[in-house]
Amino acid sequence: MSGGTFSLLIIGGYGAFGGRLARLLGEEHRLRLLIAGRSLEKADDFVFDMRSPKGGAGRLGGNDLGAWLQAVAFDRDGDLQEQLTRLRPDLVVDASGPFQSFTGDGYKLVRACIDLGIDYADLADSTGFVAGIGGLDAEAKAKDIFVLSGLSSLPALSFAALEAMAPHFSRVESVAAGIAPSSHVRIGLNVVRAIASYAGRPVALLRQGQPAKGRGLIDEMRVTIAPPDVAPLASRTFLLVDAPDLALLPDRFAGLQSTFTGVGTEPQALQRLLRFAARLVEIGLLPSLTPFARALQAASHRFAAGAHRGGMFVRLGGLDHQGRRLTADWSLIAEGDDGPFIPVLGVELLVRRLLEGRRPESGARPAAGELSLSDFEAAFSQFSIASGIRLEHEEEPQPLYRRILGDAWEKLPPTLAAIHAGGTRLASGRARIERGGGLLSRLIAGVIGFPPAGEDVPVAVRFVAEGDREIWTRTFGGKTFRSWQAAGKGRDRHLLVEVFGPFRVLLALVPEGEKLRLVVRGWRFCGIPLPLFLAPGGDTYEEEREGRFHFHVEIGGRLTGLVVRYSGWLVLE
Predict the structure, then answer these.
(1) What is the number of other CB atoms lying within 10 angstroms of the CB of residue 540?
(2) SS3 state at 492
(3) Which residue from 285, 365, 367, 531 has the highest number of Cβ atoms inside 10 Å of its Cβ?
(4) H-type helices in 90-177, by residue range?
(5) Regions of the chain with pLDDT less than 70
(6) What is the mean pLDDT of the chain?
(7) Residues 6+ apart with CB under 8 A from 346
(8) How far apart are CA 6 and CA 354, in angstroms?
(9) Residue 511 and residue 9: Cα distance in Å, rounded?
(10) Residue 54: predicted pLDDT
């Protein structure tokens, strides 16, 4: 760092991840950003776009460009000593890849940085590359520089999450992690090539405490990503991918029994086709999926469907300090286009630390554990990203809503927590009821037993815990109807299931300030799944107002119109 300016060379600087890193750091006036790649023309175009009023330069796309930008050509297969000496960077960030395809001396660039005394970091997701970087540790220490590999979602963020959960355990027996990209995000070709390279190939992991071979993009695990504070992603299957965590975890936890890292893409039908193709590789009918990488990338773009949301999870299982079985889940959901920024946040945090004079220890190592979860959470605040941890003890019965909400339970206003405290309880109050006038809405209301319309109607609700479910008996005036609620299981995990007669409605519990919103995420009739866009919906929430529990429930749909709307207050007796 000379003259108060820190020189950062981003190799792959105009690519999917390098470009996002440049945009995050673009407002930093202390930076000299060298946007590098094999094509000087593409680098020039990117820098021009960054500098243009519509280019979205600077943090989160603002036009507050303060960094000094320069487009440079950089060929990792060329004379690295000459190129690095000429460019004189303080830090080299390799955001190119795919690291799985590096042949010969895959660490050629790293060695050149060490020889010249230049700090180095990368976004590598290759197990072999990241796990092997420690072989250069002595050389890096001799030059008093740091070399950090894998400063990305896996393993930097995943290890930050597991380190936050690990203190709850006396013994960790299983670790699983996965990424669920939004189907609307245009995945880069290098990422697709990396995934295709191990489709149908053996992937080293742990099973029953022993080294074993999984099957890339074939072995699977179903997970619902559900941070405590937001509506969960749709439950999905994650296919096994080769990630650095699989090699690093056995050294972190003695006695670890099983490991898994996966990707869960939407639409799931397209992922099932990918799994079928991986099976063809496994049995030898296809040599590899790598030649089809462009076609796979095009298909992922063409068939984008569903909500524009992505996510990530890390799950630990084992024993707590009292010897009870414990499962800890860290989940993250990113809205819209914010998800693809997550893999570069670790590098952004590193650069900002360096600008403050805070250097990592010298040496070469994987970036696992280099940053804390609180570091990442501070970076999340600039995005529409929600994350949180759920702890579940198998032997510890908890109230239904507390089990589903996890850590978010602590944020509930006192009157809402009291209503949902479990056991048998009775509450009474007053309500206003509206009914729909359509034939179908009246038929449904009659089948379920909804009360007739009325103003200032006396209401009583009796809650009875029965096994793993709660029975709600509501009496409006002289009209009574019942439903029962339970925690969803399997693909409905982290959702509230409410059953009205033949209808089963799946609800996400979403705290929002003083309110607890109930958001419909699915429904079934006599066990048959029905289209979500036809599901009964409406503005349904609970809130604390003037020291009382208030409720507002709307049930209606596209086909029925309004079925019933009732609102009012309750006080526990």
Answers:
(1) 19
(2) helix
(3) 367
(4) 108-115, 127-132, 137-142, 158-165
(5) 1-3, 53-64, 100-104, 395-396
(6) 91
(7) 151, 152, 156, 157, 367, 370, 371, 376
(8) 9
(9) 43
(10) 59
